Amino acid sequence: MKEISQSRRDFVKKTSLIASSLAALPFASNAGYYNSSADDSIKVALIGCGGRGTGAAMQAMLSKQNVKLVAMADAFRDRLDSCFKVLSDPNNEDGSVSDRIAVPEENKFTGFDGYKKAMALADVVILTTPPGFRPIHFEEAVKQGKQIFMEKPVATDPAGIKRVLDAAVIARQKKLNVVVGLQRHYQNSYRELYKKLKEGMVGDIVSAQAWWNNEGVWMNPRQYNQTEMEYQMRNWYYFNWLCGDHITEQHIHNIDVINWFKGSYPVKAQGMGGREVRKGKEYGEIFDHHYVEFTYADGSILNSQCRHIKGTMSKVDELIVGTKATIQCGAANIIDRKGKVLYQYDRSKENNPYQTEHDELFAAIAKKEYKFDDTENGAKSTMTSILGRMATYSGQVVEFDKALNSGLNIMPAKYDFNALPPLLPNADGFYPVAVPGVTNYFA
Question: Most buried residue, 54, 232, 246, 391, by most Cβ within 10 Å?
């Protein structure tokens, strides 16, 4: 995650996309666009003020449109304050956006319900909380008629995916732009590789491989007098209702690339996984490795692997094998069966896809264009990763449609810091962990 964060900063530095004061078009009265106002700025509410939220807000402010952050919401005040401090810093290394931060104290909301009030003050919402909250936040944003940027994944269980897909229908009716943070869709090299695929250079895709292998991420020790709900919220990465396991939170990027290039989603999955090294109570319930065989309707296979184990090979990449040639996404090239390079993307033309997501979204909003509808793909690629998790946790073959329609819901009954989350530790502080061959989702 540190590497990814650093790459975002480097991209922004290299491209020097410092925000200009170009005015956006006046607010339109129709739902989904601007509120009528003498102020012609595009007003943004940030929902989720962690590291990714801070980065996304920065990228929104660095777009060429007249964008202002007017409201913020987070479950924790300290995270909100930290985010506000970074964004307000005129000497920020990513570029100064302090003149675009217009969030008075009364527009800073905390707790589980603050997002509704923050959204009501804005034209565009940025949804960057832990992904378990994405379905309810997306529903509310659509209900309020807001333009939307939401990070991946868009849910952590099949019931959440259903909610997102249902809300997407209404978003289309309202002509709301929705960009999902699967940023490879906005990266020049991937766009060019996809174009070559569609032109026939690769032939039909017969198999693929995808990797997200690294050492893992942060962990926050339990604090004195911390409720179980707060502890899990502070360590959201290790609890499925919040994160979905790293196969969903991280590896979705690589899985999504294969779905995108295939133009379809797997019909079933089987695989293996477990907790080989990371077995401590501080790691909640998630596995430290997954290996999944995804099968598509045409019989082609995606072999997918992700791992969080220190000292092991680190690799984040995708490989797509066609009847004519092979796409090496990380190398940004296409090679034939003898290894001859048929196409090599010019790296000097690479962009910052995290910035491009926001540049293109806010340009469309400023022009009052309905241009982006990433929701269905975001939901179905998220569901693909959940399918993989269900396969590794159970050790069974799991069908996409059966899983999607299972109604499986792992979210809490109540959102409150004194309420009990859906997973509780035993007397020794250890959490229940899925057991392949025993865990059964369709009993």
Answer: 391
